[in-house]
Every structure is written in structure tokens, then in C-alpha cells.
Automatic annotation (TrEMBL):
Keyword RNA-binding set for record: no
Residues that span the membrane, as ranges: 40-59, 102-121, 133-154, 160-181, 193-209, 215-232, 239-257, 426-442, 454-474
Region (Disordered), start-end ranges: 1-22
Organism: Streptacidiphilus monticola
Keywords: Membrane, Transmembrane, Transmembrane helix
Compositionally biased residues, Polar residues: 1-10
Designated name of the protein: Glycosyltransferase RgtA/B/C/D-like domain-containing protein
Top-level taxon of the source organism: Bacteria
Amino acid sequence: MAADSLSTGPPATGPGQSPGRRWSARARRLAQRIPPARRFPLAMAAVFLACSLAWWVAFYPGLMSYDSFTYTWEATTGHWINDHSIPYVAGVWLSLHLSGTYAPLTFCQIVAAAGLVGYLAAGLERFAIRRRWIAGAVVLCGVLPPTGEFFVFVWKDVPFVLGALAAAGALLHLVGGWLRVPRSARRSAPGRRAPWLVLGVGMLLMCLARNNGFLTVVCTGLVLLACVPWHWRRIASVTAVPVLVYVFLVTVVYPAAGVQPQKNNSAYSFFYADLAYGYSKDPGLFTKAQLSAMAAVAPLEHWRTAGAQCWDSDPLTISSQFHAAAATTNRSQLLSAFTTVLKRAPQYVADAQLCRAHNAWAVFPDHPILVAPVDYTGPYHAAVVSHPELAHNPFHQAFHSRPLSRTAHRAGHWWYDLSRTPQLEWILWGGAVWCYLTYAWILRLTRRVRRRELLAAAAVMAGLQLTVLIATPAPLYRYMAGPTVLGVLLLPLACSRLRLPEDPP
């Protein structure tokens, strides 16, 4: 009788249930349809997407910088120039013509970031890490201003970091698979093809997102080769193919499509900055011919005063006293002068390089790290001065913020300002600390498991750091955004329970 009375109650999802319970039951049924292996990465992707949507609502249609308006000027006025990522400029053009705003582009960025974070989280599971720690790292990455708000920027650095996320996630999957193969058979087990394909796509995205992205790809490939040399064929493929595709686009496709070659001196600004620094230290290093070439480009006093500081190459090259056309004409003599400094006083070149890249190696930087502001007026007005056509651009309304929630905008601005506390800058915006932490976790695991393959998990991080150490114009946060994002997401490696294969679990 009691059993009959119980069976007469309303069904689990019947009309007697509250709307909340019905939606909960539908969500559980939907979750049960997802394969178990995909539930956790999809959940992590959803968590990160929720955090990113909060930033997107607060700074709709996206955060902007001087470069954002330069992309718009190039895309909407027919000035397609290969000084920025052409695929990304094309994305800006498509977003503006579809909606009149940057919103579709920035929304696609946060969706792609969420998917790649979920993929990386699945790779971390292979290292015997509790899911709670992985989830905590994902939430932390989505909440912190340096990492959470970054994917809302209209910046070519965003797809560059997305490529680094894809490559790092693929390596976690590969390394996790290699560790399950006996040491004696590791040379004959390259791993599944899917992670290698994702690794190649990530490398290609890094090449296409930045003109110097190929340098990061080459550095990452060399580090991988040093870690797992027995997989050299596949490493060569995922390294060489993206670089060759980039070279083919730059030398064949872009000129055929009418894209103008790079006209400024940004590719040589590092050499000119090192030259100016050497001149400020010892003017007697140079010959009369070299000094004449330098004077034809800019007054020697400008070379000396601009070179006296080593933090930024822009004061030298982005100045009315520096003539870009004359620099192109006298390029051979200027490079000869740089070679003179490198041969006779290499300490000046090393000093200038390490000075500009201090946020890539210094734990406590002794110079402020340059971070893009979250306001729009300064970059916009500076861009209009350089590109007057922007003032009458038909997409003028897209250049300004229209937050979907004023409360969210104020809260996001407050949280960002709090993160700029000088005492916190070294860890939140520096990037170098996250590199060292990641190396420490991976080295500790390598000593515990005694498998050399584990070192490959840090290859992308090392490639990103080496690129900044080799060539960077200034200590800009965006150049170390990739290591910062990866460092936060890889924090759970500190909680890995990996042991030697013969040890009990």
C-alpha cells in the first residue's frame, strides 16, 4: 500500500515540479549524453567562458589600444600593410562589416580561449592531478586582470597567445601519453596523431599572428628537440611547415593580393637601439663613415640622448628627428656600426637587450612594466594624430566603449586598478615569475619520475621567454602575456601525484 502511494506522485520532470527542478533535470540528462572523457574539459571551458563573458560585458565591445585603431585604419581605408598580422587585420575588417563593432571578433576570441583552456585542462589530468586544483587554476586565470581581460583586447597578440595555448595543451597530451609507455619503447611510440596536429596548428597560428612569431616557433622546436630528440621527424614537421607557410604568404600571396611591404624600421629597431646605446656609452667606437651615416638619419645628439636609456627603442625611431627613409638608404652603414659595437663592446649590446627584456627574466623589475590602459581616449586620439582619416571613418562609433553593464564596467575598472598596485606588479604583470614557477614544477616531477620526456611540457613556455630575450622593443606586458596565462593554468603541476612506474599509486 505504501509502495502504491509512492508511485502515484508526480514524475521527476512532470508539471508538478518547479521550473528550477525541471531545468536541473534537463541539464543532467544533457550532461549524461556527453561522453565521460569530455565532461571535465567542457566544464572547464564553460567556467572560463563565464569569466570571460563578465569581462566582455564590462568592456563591450572590447578593450582597445593604439594598435587596434591602426588595424582599423589599414582594413577600412585600403592601406593593407604587412607591418601587422594580415589575417588578424582581415578579422577586424570582417567584424566591422558584419556588425559595425569589434564585438564579433572579441566574442570569437573568448570562445576560442575557453575551448583551448578546456583542452589544456584535459591534458593536465594525465599528470595525476585532482580536478579541484585544475578547476581552481582555470578560475584564477579567468578572474585575474592580466589573464582574464587579455582575451577581450582587439590585439594580434590574442591569437598569438591562443596558438601558444593550443601548442602547450597538445604537449601536455603528448607527454602524458609518453609517460604511459615503458622507457624501453618510448622511441617507437610517438603518440597519437591528434595532439601532433593540434601542436602544428598552434605553431601555425603563432606564425600568422605576429611577424616575429616564426622566431617563437623555431625556439620552441629547438627546445623540443633537446627534450625528445628521438621524435625529431615530427618535431621538424610541426616546426618547419608553419614557418614555410608564413614565408610563402609573405613572399608570394601578400604581394599578389596587393598588400604593401613593411615601410617602417620596426624590423631593425632593435639593432638601431643597441647602436644608439653603444654610441651614448662610447662615441669613439665608430668610423667617420659610420658617424656620417648616423648623422644623415638623425642628429648625433639625438642618437646619444635617445640611446642613454635602454628601456625602450621607440624614443629613438618614433621621433620627428629620425628619418625613416634615410635609415633605409643608409641601412648597410647602420648595420655595420651595430656590428662594430657587437665586436668591440659586446657588453653594451647585452646590456641593452637584457634591459629591454627585463620583464622576461627579472623577478623584481627595476623599471615599470608597460601595460595597456583600459580607457579608450588616449590611444584613440594618438591614432587620429597619426591617421587623420580615422576622425571621419564610417566605423567611428566602434572606437568607443559601450559597456553592456555600467556596474560591471566600474567593477572591472576597479579590479584592474587594484591589480596595478606596484607591490603586486612583479607577479601579476611580470611574466618571468610564472616561467620560473613552471620550470620548478616540471623539474621536480622529472626528478621524481625520472623520465626526460617531462621536460617537453615546458617547451612552449621556454620558446616564448627566449623570443622576448632575443628581440623586444620595450618591456611590454603583451609580449609576456603567453607565459603569464600558461603559468597560471599550469600551477596544478605543483600538486601532481605522479610516481615512478614501479611505485604503487
